[in-house]
């Protein structure tokens, strides 16, 4: 993956696997790149349509809402 790779998913429907064995499906509404305390960060904002997890996780309560996910939280991301 190249720097700012999340920018490629802006405006697309994706499946994302994040930490905690959680998979989410949703539409990437926004892409952000910035710098905080001399560290660059890459993030996307996703409107959640579906959450797939075996855990009783609070993220399931966010279906229909937009959440921000940082690059270092993403294990895998695919356009679907």
How would you portray this structure in words?
The protein has strands at 13-18, 22-36, 39-52, 66-70, 74-79. The chain is mostly beta strands and 80 residues long. A 5-stranded antiparallel sheet has the order 4-3-2-1-5, with no helix packed on it. A hairpin with a 2-residue loop joins strand 2 and strand 3 (39-52). The protein is globular. The two termini are 18 Å apart.
Describe the main β-sheet briefly.
5 strands, antiparallel
Rounded to an integer, what's the Rg over CA atoms? 12 Å
Beginning-to-end CA distance, first to last residue: 18 Å
What is the average of the pLDDT values? 86
N-to-C SSE series? Answer: EEEEE
Quick take:
The protein has strands at 13-18, 22-36, 39-52, 66-70, 74-79. The protein is an all-beta fold.
What attributes characterize this protein structure?
80 residues; mainly beta; 5-stranded antiparallel β-sheet; 0% helix; globular
């Amino acid at each position: 993956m190249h720097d700012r790779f999340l920018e490629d998913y802006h405006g697309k429907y994706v499946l994302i696997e994040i930490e905690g064995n959680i998979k989410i499906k949703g539409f990437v509404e926004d892409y952000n790149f910035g710098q905080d305390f001399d560290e660059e960060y890459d993030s996307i904002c996703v409107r959640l349509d579906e959450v797939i997890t075996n855990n009783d996780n609070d993220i399931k309560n966010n279906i229909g809402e937009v959440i921000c996910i940082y690059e270092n939280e993403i294990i895998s991301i695919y356009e679907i």
